[in-house]
Amino acid sequence: MKKITIVGAGRVGESTAQILAKEELCRELVLLDIQDGVPQGVALDIQQSASLLRFDTKVHGATDAAAMAGSDLVIVTAGLPRKPGMSRSDVLDANLGVIDGIVDDVLTHAPDAMIMMVTNPVDVLTFRVWKRTGWPRQRVFGQSGALDTARMTAFIALETGYSAKDISGLVLGGHGDAMVPLARFTDIAGIPIEHFLDAEALERIAERTRQGGGEILALKKHSSAYDTPAAAIAAMVDAITHNRRRILPCVSILDGEYGLWNIAMGVPAVLDENGLSGIIELHLNTAERAEFEASATLVREDIERLP
Cα 303 to chain center, whole Å? Predict the structure, then answer.
């Protein structure tokens, strides 16, 4: 891609910009924020590392939404973060107006872009963006499944002592306490995870995955996670930029897949130069289906709160 804009120059936005610039996933990178001086300072700091990290990406900061003009992709990280004790749904009302304003800016200045949502509650806000833009669902998607899956595989590596490089996992559903880690689709070097861990250990890892963001928030107290979210965003951008057709769990608009319509949920999706170009529909067993539908119910409850 020639140009990517990140809206929100906070910790997630800054960490994402550092990775995208270092990996040269675009020629031009813009950081947008409402706080004058913040995006400019973040951008300049990253730009000064170019000779050390060996990249030629041009990084700019701005407060004027017009700076996103010509963007191929807009990544939205702006909004109110969670505080200890808050759920992702708790920030919906505060972030809804912020996201609506950003979407209007995109429609005005970058009408041909794709939008990747990161702001929580990401499932509900991805749905909101899709509805507000009226765009095809290929151009509007959210980041959470890749993050949740990374947390799950990290916990498996810690539990087993095996290399994280050899672990593949999968987390579906809403990005909340009812997300669905799928042990049946998890392996270490192709060997089913049940060969290494018993049911009790797998359930312990699944629950820690569901609480992964909250655990970090409780430890740090004044900041939520940002390094792994940024890495997950970068993995999705890499798949799009290089037309890799990678299968990654993403927040996707469902149109009959998994028996659901008019909802945004985390499912395995194909990412390529066109954005989210396909959805992989898995055959879930009875227990997995029940968990997935329970997660969908919670997401739909929040969607029904939208004005």
Answer: 18
